[in-house]
C-alpha cells in the first residue's frame, strides 16, 4: 500500500514536471507570448461588414497602434530628442511631407477647365458678378494663387480649386519637424499647461509593431527616461502619446497586480489555514494544491492559445481561493465520505466556467481554460490526499453554527422578506448599466492629457472619421463628392478632409469642363475679357487621372486616404468636423449603404453591452441547468429552492454593486457566473451533508479564503477587475448566509 502511494506521488511529480517543460517550451520558442493589448481582449462587433471594410479597419488600427507622437513648444529640445530617438532601431521617424506650393500650382495648372472649387459656380450666375469676383480675387493681398494660375486658366476656376487645396492643412514644417501655430481658442485652453503659441511635433512608427508587453515596457521606459532628461536639460515639456504607452501602463499595472495580489492572497490564506488547523503539514498540502492547480491551468492555457492576456491572469488569480476548497472538504470530512460530492461539485463548477468559453472575448475563453484545468489539478490532488493521508487534525468548532441553523429553521420567512426587500430596492433604485470601454484600462491622467493635446495639435480632435466603400476608385470619389455636397447643404460650415478635395472624380471634372465651356459660349466672360485685356476661354478637356496624381507633389496623400484597393473594391478614409448627433444619424441613414463611421471606442462599448446581455442569458440558462442537476440528484423542491437562492444572491450582488459603483458592467455579470459555480458547490454540500460541523468548517474556510482572494481585487486600479472583485465578495457573503436554507429539515 505504501509503495502504491509513493508511485502515485511520483506520477504527480512527473506530470507536473512535464507540464512545466511544456510551459517553458511554449514561451522560449515563441509559440505562446504574453500580451497587454487591451483591445485584443474585446469582442468584434457582430455587425456584418464587407471583407474590404474589415481589411481597411485592420490597416487603420495597425497604423494608429504603431504610431508615437511627441510635441514641444521648444524646437531645440524636440530636435535633440528626435535625433536621440532616431538612433533606436525599434523606431522609424516619419518626416513631414515636403510639399512646395509652387510645385503644386505647376502640377494642377496642367489641367485647366477641369478643376474648380464647390463655391465657384455661385459666381457664374451673372456676368457682372463674375467680373466683380475676378477683380476681387486678383487685387486682394493674398492673390498669389490667382495671379499664378491666371495664364493657364483665366476663368480663375483653377485658382478657386488651388485656394481650397492650400487651406486643407494648417500644419507647416520647419527643420524636419511639423510646425503648428495655436489658434487663439487653443491658446486659452492650453495656457495653463504651456504658454507657447507655436508647437513642433515629431512622429515615429514602431519598427516591429507587436503587442509583446516586455518589449513595450522596455521601450517606453527608455523613452520616458529620455523625456525626463531632455525636459530637465531644456526646461521645456515634451508631450508624448501613442498606443504603446497605454499598453505599457496596462502591462506594468497587470504585472504588479498579478504579483502583489497573488502574494498577498497566498499569505492571507496560509495564515488562515495555519490558525484554523495549527498544522504545518496542511500548509504544505495547501501550497502543493495551489502549485499543482496553477501548473495544470497554465499548461492548458499555453497549449490552447498563442497569446496569453495579462488581464486574464489577473482574473485567474482567483484560482488560489477556489482551488483549495476541495482540500478543505477532504481535511474536514470523515475519510472517504465526500468523494461523490467533490466530483459533482467540480463538474458543476467546471460547467459554470465552461460558459466563459462560449464568449467571443479571448480573455474569457482563457479564464475558462485556466480555471477548469486548474481546478481539475486541485481536485485530483485532493482526492489523492483523501486516499493516501490519514491526518488527525484538531479543528475548532464553528461558533456561529446556531445562527446558520436558525436561518435554516426560519428560511420561509427569511426568503419571503428578502424577495420583498430586493424587489422594492430594484423598483426604487434599479440596476444601472455602464458599458464604456474605459472599464478595460487604467490609463493615467497624464497620458490622457498628452493624448488630447497632441490630437489637438494634429487637428484630429473633435472629428468624425469615416470609411467609404465602392467597387472602383472613380466610384469611390463620386460617392465621396456626394457626401461632401450633402454636408455642405445640411451641416453648418464643417471642414471635410477628403481625397476628392485634391483629386476630383472624372465625372466631376467633366461636369466642371462642360459648365465652364457653356458659360464661355454664353458670353459670361466677355466683361472679364474686356477688363483684363485677355481672351478668357477654356482649352481642350484634359482631366486629372489617378495615375497622374500618383506622380504629383501630393502623392504622399494617396496612401493616407486610399486605405484599401483591389480589383473589386476601393475604400477611402476621410474625416469631418464633429457633427450633431441628429446630423450624423441622418447622414448615416441616407448613405449608410456605403458609408461607415469609424468610432473604435463606441464599437467596443457597444460590443461590451451586447456581450453583457449575452452573459445575462447564459446566467439564466446555467441557473436552469443547475436546477435540473439538483432535481436529478435530489428532488424538485430542492431544485426550486436552489433556483430561488441563486436568484436572490445574484440580485443582491448586482444591486448592491450598482449602488456602490453607480453602475454595473460586463465584468460584474461575469462575476455572477463564478458565484453561480460556487453556489452549486455550497448547495450540493449543504444538501448532502447538512449543517454538521465538518461541513460548516469546510464551507466557512472556503468562504474566508475566497473573500480574502476576491476582496483583494477591490484594490485594483483597473475598473474591470475592481467590478469583478466587488460583485464576488458581495455575492459570496450573501451566498454563505442563504445557502443553509437548502438543508432539508429532519423530523
From TrEMBL:
<keyword id="KW-1003">Cell membrane</keyword>
<protein>
    <submittedName>
        <fullName>MMPL family transporter</fullName>
    </submittedName>
</protein>
<feature type="transmembrane region" description="Helical">
    <location>
        <begin position="258"/>
        <end position="277"/>
    </location>
</feature>
<keyword id="KW-0472">Membrane</keyword>
<dbReference type="Pfam" id="PF03176">
    <property type="entry name" value="MMPL"/>
</dbReference>
<feature type="transmembrane region" description="Helical">
    <location>
        <begin position="311"/>
        <end position="331"/>
    </location>
</feature>
<feature type="transmembrane region" description="Helical">
    <location>
        <begin position="338"/>
        <end position="356"/>
    </location>
</feature>
<keyword id="KW-1133">Transmembrane helix</keyword>
<feature type="transmembrane region" description="Helical">
    <location>
        <begin position="414"/>
        <end position="432"/>
    </location>
</feature>
<feature type="transmembrane region" description="Helical">
    <location>
        <begin position="284"/>
        <end position="305"/>
    </location>
</feature>
<feature type="transmembrane region" description="Helical">
    <location>
        <begin position="368"/>
        <end position="389"/>
    </location>
</feature>
<feature type="transmembrane region" description="Helical">
    <location>
        <begin position="698"/>
        <end position="715"/>
    </location>
</feature>
<dbReference type="InterPro" id="IPR050545">
    <property type="entry name" value="Mycobact_MmpL"/>
</dbReference>
<keyword id="KW-0812">Transmembrane</keyword>
<feature type="domain" description="Membrane transport protein MMPL">
    <location>
        <begin position="184"/>
        <end position="326"/>
    </location>
</feature>
<feature type="transmembrane region" description="Helical">
    <location>
        <begin position="611"/>
        <end position="632"/>
    </location>
</feature>
<feature type="transmembrane region" description="Helical">
    <location>
        <begin position="666"/>
        <end position="686"/>
    </location>
</feature>
<feature type="transmembrane region" description="Helical">
    <location>
        <begin position="721"/>
        <end position="743"/>
    </location>
</feature>
<feature type="transmembrane region" description="Helical">
    <location>
        <begin position="639"/>
        <end position="660"/>
    </location>
</feature>
<dbReference type="InterPro" id="IPR004869">
    <property type="entry name" value="MMPL_dom"/>
</dbReference>
Amino acid at each position: 500500500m505504501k509503495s502504491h502511494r509513493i508511485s502515485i506521488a511520483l506520477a504527480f511529480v512527473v506530470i507536473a514536471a512535464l507540464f512545466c517543460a511544456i510551459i517553458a517550451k511554449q514561451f522560449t520558442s515563441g509559440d505562446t507570448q504574453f500580451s497587454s493589448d487591451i483591445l485584443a481582449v474585446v469582442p468584434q462587433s457582430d455587425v456584418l461588414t464587407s471583407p474590404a471594410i474589415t481589411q481597411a479597419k485592420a490597416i487603420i488600427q495597425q497604423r494608429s497602434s504603431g504610431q508615437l507622437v511627441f510635441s514641444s513648444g521648444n524646437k531645440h529640445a524636440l530636435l535633440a530628442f528626435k535625433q536621440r530617438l532616431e538612433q533606436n532601431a525599434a523606431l522609424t521617424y516619419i518626416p513631414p511631407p515636403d510639399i512646395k506650393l509652387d510645385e503644386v500650382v505647376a502640377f494642377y495648372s496642367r489641367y485647366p477647365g477641369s478643376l474648380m472649387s464647390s463655391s465657384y459656380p455661385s459666381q457664374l450666375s451673372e456676368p457682372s458678378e463674375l467680373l466683380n469676383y475676378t477683380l476681387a480675387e486678383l487685387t486682394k493681398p493674398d492673390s498669389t494663387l490667382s495671379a499664378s494660375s491666371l495664364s493657364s486658366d483665366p476663368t480663375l476656376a483653377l485658382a478657386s480649386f488651388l485656394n481650397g487645396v492650400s487651406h486643407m492643412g494648417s500644419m507647416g514644417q520647419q527643420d524636419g519637424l511639423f510646425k503648428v501655430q495655436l489658434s487663439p481658442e487653443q491658446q486659452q485652453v492650453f495656457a495653463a499647461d504651456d504658454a507657447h503659441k507655436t508647437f513642433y511635433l515629431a512622429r515615429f512608427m514602431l519598427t516591429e509593431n507587436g503587442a509583446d508587453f516586455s518589449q513595450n515596457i522596455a521601450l517606453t521606459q527608455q523613452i520616458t527616461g529620455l523625456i525626463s532628461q531632455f525636459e530637465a536639460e531644456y526646461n521645456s515639456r515634451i508631450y508624448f502619446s501613442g498606443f504603446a504607452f497605454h499598453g505599457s501602463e496596462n502591462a506594468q499595472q497587470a504585472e504588479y497586480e498579478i504579483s502583489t495580489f497573488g502574494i498577498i492572497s497566498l499569505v492571507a490564506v496560509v495564515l488562515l489555514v495555519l490558525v484554523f488547523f495549527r498544522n504545518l503539514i496542511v500548509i504544505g498540502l495547501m501550497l502543493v494544491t495551489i502549485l499543482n492547480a496553477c501548473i495544470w491551468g497554465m499548461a492548458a492555457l499555453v497549449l490552447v492559445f498563442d497569446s496569453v492576456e495579462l488581464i486574464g491572469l489577473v482574473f485567474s488569480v482567483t484560482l488560489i481561493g477556489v482551488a483549495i476548497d476541495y482540500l478543505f472538504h477532504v481535511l474536514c470530512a470523515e475519510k472517504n465520505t465526500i468523494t461523490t460530492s467533490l466530483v459533482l461539485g467540480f463538474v458543476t463548477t467546471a460547467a459554470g466556467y465552461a460558459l466563459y468559453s462560449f464568449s467571443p472575448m479571448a480573455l474569457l475563453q482563457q479564464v475558462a481554460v485556466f480555471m477548469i484545468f486548474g481546478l481539475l489539478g486541485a481536485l485530483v490532488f485532493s482526492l489523492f490526499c483523501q486516499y493516501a493521508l490519514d491526518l488527525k487534525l484538531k479543528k475548532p468548532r464553528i461558533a456561529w453554527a446556531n445562527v446558520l441553523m436558525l436561518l435554516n429553521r426560519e428560511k420561509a420567512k427569511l426568503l419571503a422578506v428578502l424577495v420583498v426587500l430586493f424587489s422594492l430596492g430594484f423598483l426604487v433604485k434599479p440596476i444601472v448599466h455602464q458599458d464604456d470601454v474605459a472599464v478595460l484600462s487604467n490609463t493615467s491622467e497624464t497620458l490622457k492629457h498628452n493624448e488630447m493635446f497632441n490630437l489637438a495639435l494634429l487637428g484630429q480632435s473633435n472629428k468624425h472619421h469615416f470609411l467609404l466603400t465602392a467597387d472602383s476608385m472613380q466610384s469611390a470619389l463620386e460617392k465621396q463628392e456626394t457626401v461632401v455636397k450633402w454636408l455642405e447643404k445640411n451641416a453648418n460650415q464643417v471642414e471635410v478632409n477628403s481625397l476628392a478635395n485634391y483629386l476630383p472624380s472624372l465625372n466631376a471634372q467633366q461636369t466642371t469642363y462642360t459648365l465652364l465651356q457653356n458659360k464661355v459660349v454664353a458670353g459670361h466672360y466677355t466683361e472679364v475679357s474686356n477688363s483684363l485685356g485677355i481672351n478668357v476661354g477654356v482649352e481642350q478637356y484634359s482631366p486629372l487621372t489617378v495615375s497622374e496624381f500618383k506622380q504629383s507633389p501630393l502623392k504622399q496623400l494617396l496612401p493616407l486616404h486610399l486605405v484599401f484597393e483591389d480589383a473589386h473594391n476601393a475604400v477611402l478614409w476621410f474625416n469631418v468636423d464633429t457633427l450633431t448627433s441628429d446630423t450624423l444619424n441622418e447622414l448615416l441613414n441616407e448613405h449608410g449603404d456605403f458609408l461607415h463611421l469609424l468610432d473604435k471606442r463606441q464599437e467596443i462599448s457597444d460590443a461590451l453591452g451586447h456581450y453583457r446581455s449575452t452573459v445575462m442569458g447564459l446566467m439564466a440558462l446555467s441557473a436552469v441547468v443547475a436546477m435540473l442537476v439538483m432535481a436529478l440528484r435530489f428532488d424538485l423542491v430542492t431544485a426550486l429552492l436552489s433556483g430561488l437562492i441563486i436568484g436572490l444572491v445574484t440580485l443582491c450582488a448586482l444591486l448592491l454593486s450598482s449602488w456602490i459603483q453607480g453602475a454595473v458592467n460586463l465584468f460584474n455579470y461575469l462575476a455572477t457566473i463564478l458565484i453561480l459555480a460556487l453556489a452549486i458547490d455550497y448547495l450540493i454540500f449543504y444538501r448532502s451533508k447538512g449543517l454538521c460541523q465538518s461541513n460548516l468548517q469546510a464551507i466557512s474556510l472556503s468562504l474566508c479564503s475566497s473573500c480574502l482572494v476576491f476582496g483583494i481585487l477591490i484594490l485594483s486600479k483597473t475598473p474591470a477587475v475592481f467590478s469583478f472583485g466587488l460583485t464576488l465578495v458581495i455575492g459570496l457573503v450573501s451566498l454563505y448566509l442563504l445557502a443553509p436554507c437548502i438543508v432539508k429539515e429532519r423530523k
